[in-house]
Design goal:
InterPro entries: AP_endonuc_1 (IPR004808), AP_endonuclease_F1_BS (IPR020847), AP_endonuclease_F1_CS (IPR020848), Endo/exonu/phosph_ase_sf (IPR036691), Endo/exonuclease/phosphatase (IPR005135), ExoIII-like (IPR037493). The protein is of the alpha+beta class. It has helices at about 15-25, 45-50, 115-140, 170-185, 190, 210, 225; strands at about 1-5, 30-35, 50-55, 65-70, 75-80, 90-95, 100-105, 140-145, 185, 200, 215, 220, 230-235, 250-255. The strands form three sheets. A six-stranded mixed β-sheet has the order 3-4-2-1-14-13. A six-stranded mixed β-sheet has the order 5-6-7-8-12-9.
């Protein structure tokens, strides 16, 4: 069972890229972020044509999250994050698919920091940590997949010294990730690639993709009951190089069913 996360950076504007990737790789479950589309304008039919059913939480011009499933039913369990400090922003959706609970998240960026946006990022992260702890306590197989807007360690960014004051890399943001790992979640990509230079985002500026001047901010955290079922994980880096692609690349894990 392949579960992927992909910040599409505008689903309708980049629909050809998304459909090409889905048709090429055929993941079983996909978490999407930054839909940037109102609820009524989500391209559900185009996805159904490829065999994917979907649930989504849209928002005009900003944010938005969705979960897709191929040849499987989606049983929605949550729409919105409990305790969200600003529930008008569409940042979390959750569903059970083939015996696995999948949470799709888009954690706030937080820049500029310090400031109100960074405060919101940390408040949202606190609410997410509380919810993640409750999920751990259930003992269920859970994957929390999405754009965390957190660079966990200096190994996850090109030239970390340039990111010292950025909201994605400030100590407060990195502590959020550490707190999640301390709960018992496993960073699936680092489980298989502990030392590898592995990025999921490359800016559109300064020829970042060609220079591999990237960041790792898209993560899949798996609960303890899933760790032994992890078989593979990686980044579909080449998708970032496609014409009119998102500045993120799809990131995925495979688990035994």
């Amino acid at each position: 069972m392949r579960i992927a996360t992909y910040n599409v950076n505008g689903i309708n504007g980049r629909l050809p890229v998304l459909l090409r990737w889905l048709e090429t790789t055929r993941p079983d479950v996909v978490c999407l972020q930054e839909l940037k589309v109102q609820q009524a304008n989500f391209p559900a039919q185009a996805l159904r044509n490829l065999g994917y059913v979907a649930i989504w939480l849209g928002q005009k011009s900003w944010n938005g999250v969705a979960i897709l499933a191929r040849d499987a039913a989606i049983h929605e369990t949550r729409r919105g994050l409990p305790g969200d400090p600003d529930p008008s922003q569409s940042r979390y959706i959750e569903a059970a698919i083939n015996g696995v609970l999948v949470g799709c998240l888009y954690l706030p960026n937080g820049n500029p920091a310090p400031g109100a946006r960074f405060d919101y990022k940390l408040a949202w992260a606190d609410a997410f940590i509380v919810h993640a702890a409750r999920l751990i306590e259930t003992g269920a197989p859970v994957v929390l997949a999405g754009d965390y807007n957190i660079i966990p360690t200096p190994a996850d960014v090109y030239k970390p010294e340039r990111w010292t004051d950025d909201a994605l890399f400030r100590p407060e943001a990195r502590r959020v990730f550490s707190r999640l790992l301390d709960q018992g979640w496993t960073d699936a990509l680092r489980q298989h690639h502990p030392q590898e230079i592995l990025y999921t985002f490359w800016d559109y500026f300064r020829n970042a993709y060609a220079r591999n001047a990237g960041l790792r901010i898209d993560h899949l955290l798996v609960s303890p009951s899933l760790v032994d079922r992890l078989r593979a994980s990686n980044v579909d880096r080449e998708v970032r190089g496609w014409e009119k692609s998102s500045d993120h690349a799809p990131t995925w894990i495979e688990i035994a069913t």
